[in-house]
Amino acid sequence: MILIIDFGSQFNQLIARRVREHEVYCQVEPAGFGIDKIKALKPEGIILSGGPSSIYEENSPTIDADIFKLGIPILGICYGMQFMVHTLGGKIARSSKREYGFATLNISDEQNLFSGMDSSLQCWMSHGDSTESLPGTFTVTASTQNTPIAAIADTKNNFYGLQFHPEVEHTHQGKEMIRNFIIDICHCEKNWNMESFAHTAVQEIKDAVQDKKVIMGLSGGVDSSVAALLIHKAIGKNLHCIFVDNGLLRKNEKEDLQESLTTHLDLNIKFVDARKIFLDALEGVTDPEVKRKEIGRLFIEVFDAEAKKIEGADFLGQGTLYPDIIESKSAFGGPTSIIKSHHNVGGLPEKMKLKLIEPLQLLFKDEVRQLGLELGLNEDLVWRQPFPGPGLAIRIMGEVSEKRLNILKEADALILEEIRAAGLYRKLWQSFAVLLPIKSVGVMGDKRTYDSCIAIRAVNSIDAMTADWARLPHELLARMSNRIINEVDGVNRVVFDITSKPPGTIEWE
Ligand code: XMP
């Protein structure tokens, strides 16, 4: 396995993705991760990530210098390289200027990390400080016009450093550099794939749960569905899933889920019809945070009441993914908060004294999708766009009523139908309808109308932390607008949201 030490780079998860693309398992741990823990993991190689700090800053991230005595190959990227050079006796020059963007890398030593590469290729730079002199055992292996020491190697100790970022797409052959490090230099075995993962995970769940019961809340999203399938594979009917129908779901969502997970995959799911409870509670509520809190509170109440009916449950299953875990552990820089008050089933374990089973906690989202397909989940569910816990309530500006919910559901279904037909559903991060709190005047068939307005929201994103509004083709927008106005009763105007995040958020509330 490869151990990645997170020095706070926005790209550290990308490094992990790259390693796993070569079917090698890796783990990201924060700066300061103890040397004993490192030894216990028995990594075959260590990657020190980049980061926004200068090694001269007070409290800049570090790792025990004894890692350089372990006899394990080490690759330092950007700040990671500077940390290595500085720690081993070289000199880093401070700079107030940042070098940022594309540069041409001229490789002088086409071996090891650069084996099989072109002698000149494009790389991506993002750094302030740079290396001025090297520790005696190192040589320079590549340079750029602005950065004479752009790559270094100490082949005797198998220490390598790259001032640029091999993990980003902008660096040509960066993936191969990472491959050369993990396969040729560290001699890692290619044994990380979803089939072997599922096999091990099922055995681990069996050992942990034995003949006890697991409760699990399903949201309709891919994470909880895949986690449930994996647990189901291990313990069968001892997995008790609960799906709370809060009435704030998209059109046909519950039925699709029922068909896919119960009929085809035989999951044991209790569908709780709580539509009236949620609608009653939301009556007259217009403040977004009050809506969210109320929905969160009710969800826990309903789930809790249902869970208590299941006797002898010792465990709670959750679909937590690896990025959530990395983020909560990240000591430097990394995005540590998820902006709005998201509710999942947090809070429950403590109250109910349940132990957690989180079988996806080592996986990235695309690995979860792969695993879902492996476990027989249908493609629609596997590729489902994210949907927020509070559901359509936060896409209805103003009061949530049954009538307004129905308008939104119909408009939303039409948007998704057209987005799918245009082949854009998987390409977009999210695409949906928002119902605005205003009415406007229109004219239809010679008659004056005074009806509601729908906003179309479509965004591209890789992690929801930032997002760009999608440049949908005008013909597609025209079709969606026509269909919504003609087919959805109560709507006479459609607008398109052209706000990115930041400054907007993806959802409107
Ligand atoms: P925002 O609107 O904050 O959304 O840009 C970022 C991403 O998170 C989703 N989202 C939620 N997901 N519970 C969830 O499980 C929530 O309360 C929640 N609020 C927003 C949103 O759909 C987008 O993908």
Number of helices: 15
| Main sheet: strands, sense, barrel | 9 strands, mixed
Q: Strands of the biggest beta sheet: in what spatial order?
A: 2-1-3-4-11-10-9-6-7
Basic shape? globular
Number of domains: 3
Strand content: 15-25%
What is the averaged pLDDT score?
A: 92
Could you name the CATH class of the largest domain?
Alpha Beta
Overall number of strands = 20
Which CATH architecture of the largest domain would you pick?
Answer: 3-Layer(aba) Sandwich
Unreliable sequence segments:
331-347
**Quaternary form:** single chain
From the structure above, extract its key features.
Rossmann fold, nine-stranded mixed beta sheet, five-stranded parallel beta sheet, alpha/beta, binds xanthosine-5'-monophosphate, 15 helices, single chain, GMP Synthetase, Chain A, domain 3, 33% helix, 3 domains, 509 residues
Structure description:
By secondary structure, the chain is α/β, with parallel strands linked by helices. It contains 15 helices and 20 strands. The strands form 4 sheets. The protein has a 9-stranded mixed β-sheet, sandwiched between helices. The chain has a 5-stranded parallel β-sheet with strand order 14-13-12-15-16, with helices on both faces. Strands 17, 18, 19 and 20 form a 4-stranded mixed β-sheet that branches. A hairpin with a 7-residue loop joins β9 and β10 (151-154). It is globular and about 80 Å long. It starts with a strand and ends in a 13-residue tail after the last strand. Bound molecules: xanthosine-5'-monophosphate. Xanthosine-5'-monophosphate is lined by residues 339-340, 342-343, 386, 388-390, 430, 464, 501, 505-507. ATP binds at residues 219-225.
